[in-house]
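Input.
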Amino acid sequence: MQSNEQQWLEALEGNVEPWELDSFRDAHERADAFARDATFGTGGIRALMGIGPNRLNLLTVARATAGLATHLHAVCDHVPVVAIAYDTRVHSRDFALVAARVLAAYDAKAVVFAEHQPTPVLCYAVRWLGADAGIVLTASHNPMEYNGFKVYGSKGDQATDELAHAVQACIAQIDPFHVRTISLDEGLRGGAISWAPQELLADYVQTVVGQSIGVDCSSVKLAYSPLNGTGLVPVQRVCETRGIDCRVVEGQRDPDGTFPTCPKPNPEHAPAMADVMELALREGCDLAVANDPDADRIGVAVPHEGSMRLLSGDEVGLLLFDFLARAIPHEGNAIAATTIVSTPLHDSIASANGVKLRRTLTGFKYIGEQINLLEAQGRSSDFLLGMEESCGYLRGTYVRDKDGVVSLMLICELTAYHKERGRDLAQALDDLYERYGHMVAHQVAAELPGTEGSEAIARILAGLRAKSPKAIGGLAVKKTTDYAQGASMPGDASQTLPQANVIEFDLEHNCKLIVRPSGTEPKVKAYCFAGGSTAQQAKERLQNIVDAAQHMLHA
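Output.
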């Protein structure tokens, strides 16, 4: 699609922030904004906000929505219904309303939330409403300059590769300057646009509480932060129902898309957790928890020996998996799902507890596909837990995506269980390592933005394929798996994983290195894992793998 810069500027006049105009005036940034069209990745379309076809703005959101409407008319024999939600980011509400207006103009019905909501609430709404699709405007844990257009299927699952490709093909045929739209008032009067029912959120909260395994949480004192995002209301309702004493970080309580206290609102990282950890120490809490702005992820830290210990996404997953696998009767039929870039120690827990573990590609949409498969087989009740290393977890099948609200409740139950036995979660994790073996992990990332960055990422992966290493960090490579060539699903050889730009190196001593480009950010990532008979041995091996990975990504 050929794009005239002045035409884009004029069309968006009055609907851009000063920092977006500054970016447009920068020659390098403008070149990237007009270099290509923003397209679907791991989490839908995610991009910087600004002016141009490679940015999220009213025109690109309208175009993407028109593409979705076109696809839905091709596959539905009725008037399509689409649920729409949005987070607290700059422009998110405006983007959501323009999406509703476009759907109405394309003979579809839009059901829009009147206020910002977590992504899992949108997933629940799709199923609750019997909608044909869902849209949520969010960039999850990315910095404030980003936004996203995420599409969900009729089961409340993230757009599968098949759906994403089909919608993308429709988007490509649409001129962003000639997308049909109607006014919000006209859509509301005619019934093509409606507000989501108030009782929907209440039903969601009740369903989340229904995933409890019955541990009394009244002893738990929780420090919580929504990171100026969407999680506060449902989290407080869940805490009230379960008797959890919830203390909220005041400076991060209110919705604010500029994230003034936390420029990078990613609870995987210590800076985003700093305020809630400080609150936990000050108030003598058992637990410090933060959701990312769309409340599908969760960060966890625990007071231990006078300071705070921040747990990784893998460590929280290990604790939850071990807890649920031992607490819930399953008679050997239970299925858990994780990703190929999550800790190898999950396999040990699965084996010890008679749980079948399936590993999918990166992205919770693939875990959602496993839930759909179990449902089709009449085995929904066999689904124990979904977990990924990037702080995403799900118990239950009421949605098909990670849910930071149910994760918070389960982590409070986990905390209460161990507190009753005189342990904090750090001690519980150490006990787990003693039982299953020591395992440490670290992620290395190289941020490579723009066109040049995309080319550099491609070169890194191509180089690893052209000359596969025989040893990494002094450890012999036992097996190399190039997922671009296709591979059987670990844990279920009857399933074949989709092709993906991922290379995995299985090393001796239960160590591993996996390299992949990010699907949501301009990064290439290396996931490093190291096992050992002692914690010190595992750490030493990990450092050698990390050093090798740094060289790979920055050579």
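The two ends are 35 Å apart (CA to CA).
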